[in-house]
Amino acid sequence: MSSTLFTGISELHTVSERGVINNGAVIIQDGTIQWVGPAAEAPAADQEIDCGGRAVLPGWVDSHTHMIFAGDRSQEFAARMAGEDYAAGGIAVTMNATREAGEHALTELLKQRIRDAHAGGTTTIETKTGYGLDTQSEALAARIAAAHVDDVTFLGAHLVPPGADPDTYLDEVCGPMLDAVAPHAQWIDVFCERGAFNEEQSRRVLRAGQARGLKPRVHGNQLGEGSGVQLAVELGAASVDHVNYINAEDIEALASSNTVATVLPACDLSTRQPLAPARTLIDAGVHLAIASNLNPGTSYTSSMNFCVGTAVLQMHLSLEEAIRAGTSGGARALERHDTGNGLDPHRRPAKGTLVEGAAADLHILCSAHAIDLAYRPGMPMTHQTYRAGRRVA
Ligand code: NIG
């Protein structure tokens, strides 16, 4: 395949030890990055694309979404804005709509959500099941997701469906449901929270998934202090997500582990929870990721531009820290981060970084300066998106 040289890059955010290269250039070929450096030193390529003086970042790595759903919960959101608290029970509303929607409608909804994500500079997407909550519906969600996104997470333990007995439901989740979903998924997740699943139940679910070859990740410490963080660290989870209510021991446990803390700024705003302490986590040496948490209950947006900008504005991250969390941080949460040679731990092209050997996932901003992600909130930010060298938006 022919090589392509991208020039006219005001700021090239490599998200690597090479930092930001002013007046940079990138050469891609066969879906990976072949060369990165100052434009003045760029070797020749078969064709050239002039980015017109814009900033270029790695594509966003959105490591936490719930994209397989149907239905609407705008009234629930409106009630929350009028003072109601968020409660896990709303998941059942989406469960009913999702079960009724059928394969074709769910597939079309997912495809549109992926197009929206690409249009906002996202190039890598994890998504979860968790709105089917019976074996047939969870397996369908996983199968649809596996055909369209990078990583699929089994979240049968999102909520005990209304009317079901918790122990009987968990027997199903850890038995026939897991059997049906596992062939389509890489990850096992649990909503370890008041109103959803307690520590013991969560451990059971995660261990069952691990026994089937799925790797753990956890929804934890979203609505109050709890055992999600400690459980995630204990089981070697790749990530624990939300982390709004964490204490000193949780931070210490994360800092001495490989578990990523994934913060979800849009969700925090939409649920009016205190923002996750991203600044404190970084200062303590914890690996941080930022994700959108697209879902109809707590975060109805896939805009990583918004999430990263909000992390700068409201979570007190520097621009570089926030970009890193939305790119290589997300990649680490999915075990797609660069291990030093442009490859991830499984020897695939790494995501979330612009180094030789990594995936040719480029996000060309509308602006010359990436700080505009925070400086110009709500303005169009994505000019073009390339995934594995192919333009997707
Ligand atoms: O990550 N917290 C659990 N799951 C979703 C919300 C699900 C819903 O309310 O529909 C989340 O915020």
TrEMBL record:
It is found in: Cytoplasm. Residues 95-366 form the Amidohydrolase domain. N-formimidoyl-L-glutamate binds at Y131, N295, G297. GO terms for molecular function: imidazolonepropionase activity; iron ion binding; zinc ion binding. Residues 333-347 have a biased composition (Basic and acidic residues). One of its GO terms (cellular component) is cytoplasm. Coiled coil: none annotated. Pathway: Amino-acid degradation; L-histidine degradation into L-glutamate; N-formimidoyl-L-glutamate from L-histidine: step 3/3. Its cofactor is Zn(2+); Fe(3+). Keywords: Cytoplasm, Histidine metabolism, Hydrolase, Iron, Metal-binding, Zinc. Its main location: cytoplasm. It catalyses: 4-imidazolone-5-propanoate + H2O = N-formimidoyl-L-glutamate. 4-imidazolone-5-propanoate binds at R73, Y131, H158, Q222, T298. Fe(3+) binds at H64, H66, H219, N293. Belongs to the metallo-dependent hydrolases superfamily. HutI family. Catalyzes the hydrolytic cleavage of the carbon-nitrogen bond in imidazolone-5-propanoate to yield N-formimidoyl-L-glutamate. It is the third step in the universal histidine degradation pathway. PANTHER family: IMIDAZOLONEPROPIONASE, IMIDAZOLONEPROPIONASE-RELATED. This is Imidazolonepropionase. It comes from Corynebacterium argentoratense DSM 44202. The gene is hutI.
